[in-house]
Amino acid sequence: MPNSATYQALPINEHGIQVRTYSNSFVATAMLIICIFSFVLQTELAQYVQKTSSYHKPYLILYIGHCFYIAMGPLQFILELIRSHWRSRNQQEKPNFGQQIRDTWSFCNKHMKRSLIVLETQVRGPPLDQQPRLPSQPLPAHTIWFGFWTLLILSILFTVPTYLWYLSVNLISMSTLTVIFNTGCFWAYLFSIWMLGDSIQLSKLIAVALSILGVVVMTLDQDDLVNSTLSARDFSSSLSSVIGILVAVGSALSYGYYEVHYKKFATPPDASVLFANVMTAGIGLVTLLVLWIPIPILHITGFEPFELPDLHTFLTIAAIGLMSVVYNASMMCVIALVSPVFAAVGVMLTIPVVAVVDVLVTGVMVTWMTVLGSIFILVGFYILNKQISKEEAQQLDATTLNADPDRHPLVIA
């Protein structure tokens, strides 16, 4: 089994042909770039809906968006099919398209079975029967149930912070919500220390602190934060602000926990983009089949009366859903390949990117506090990325020595 310090971008085929491998941090950084731009597009579309539509149904909007995650399954299969076609170009006897589809399906099926069995062993321990199973054999019932419960728990854990975020939008200013929600990297680090056994390192603490400081500096420049504080004079407005802050803190905390939970309970030791994206599709399927249950409950209680959007609003929500698919799929890959802290701090890069996009769209120049806050975030991410690259090099060095103890140590700059 390959060590966890590299990601096998193209699997070794049955002929034993060596393929190129990339470091996890390299692949995760590429995924993070996709994540950032998809988040920016998702944010701009969401703002468009808020300004041009009176449709305020937070749970139904997130339900529709999360159901779109199902699309990651076919998209990942198409990607694997393209890889299979690319690898077969140098073969003397090239398989026909139908054979390539069957071979790709066989590879994905075996990979998912093997990864799920390894994940179950990692979480629950070795099975009682102790009988090794070949990838061609059907999965035992306990492994199927383990996969279902894993997806159900992930779907619920992902829905909770999203819904809390939507609720807090109408209770506090957007700038205040931005600061609070982006403290998720702090919560992710705390949960990583508790659940993953991460060591307390000064460099990581500095990176997290700089990133949060950058968000705070950028937010202090927002007039709506001051206005919202000064206008909250009556009791009802003050109470609404307090509730909104508590809900936003709950959203950040629960999202930080979701990231670490995914890393601990839904990521096999040999992490892969294929497994992460299939898990994303599984979350969408569970959402479609199970998480519709709160919709009639919210309607009956009057908390969120059911109402279908018009065609234009639905198409915009669908576009938000598609961007959410790309964002969450790339985010899950980043968490699986590196760490929840890297993902949580990296996603803060969306803030300066959104600021730049707003300048291009509105023509209003950013202030010096926005520039300063962006620098803090970029420096924090750089420090964290350097630390993770150093840890990967040390892990790769240790793995090489364990595999060949007579070999002299490698010097990795």
From TrEMBL:
EamA domain mapped to chain residues:
145-219, 243-385
Gene3D superfamilies per UniProt: 1.10.3730.20
TM region positions? 21-40, 60-82, 143-165, 171-190, 202-220, 240-260, 272-299, 311-327, 334-357, 363-384
Nucleus as a keyword?
A: no
Q: Which domain of life is it from?
A: Eukaryota
Entries under InterPro entries matching the protein = EamA_dom, EmrE-like, Solute_c_fam_35_mem_F3/F4
Q: What do the Gene Ontology cellular component annotations say?
A: membrane
Signal sequence interval, chain numbering: none
Alphabetical keyword list: Membrane, Transmembrane, Transmembrane helix
> What is the name attached to this protein's record?
EamA domain-containing protein
**Record organism:** Hesseltinella vesiculosa
